Amino acid sequence: MNVTVIQGDLLDQDVDVIVNAWNRNIIPWWLLLPQGVSGAIKKRGGTGPFKEVAKHGPMPLGTAVLTSAGKLPFKGIIHVAGINMLWRASERSIRNSVRNAIEVANDNNFQSIAFPLIGAGSGGFNQAKAKEIMLDEMQKLESSVHVWVVEFKKH
């Protein structure tokens, strides 16, 4: 698997699909005030992807669901349940999220995917450790998809 780590804005990447580090999808999306990546997706892409992911119902921790990209220029958004009911990420939730997002990308013949640092925002996980776990998990996977891991650009 070809993996590139960059700093920048996830929504500005030239890829087929992006990953949204989401919650377990139990609380209705319209009751939440999406922050970080989810907030940026809602602001620039509209509410469509969140209405679609809500139709899938509760998501087991670490699973992945594909939706449209709304008004964003991607072929889709892969939402991963990267945080638990207490809004916290774990090594297991990060690893499973990476594995399942890559599987969805493979199943849909996407050529490229961009990940944020799963769990490092509202999930409260250490950014450096989240990146280390994600890269380690990606090394274990076989895929022809090109992966970008996008670290938030510090201003």
UniProtKB/TrEMBL annotation:
It holds the Pfam family Macro. InterPro entries: Macro_dom, Macro_dom-like. Residues 1-155 form the Macro domain. This is Appr-1-p processing protein.
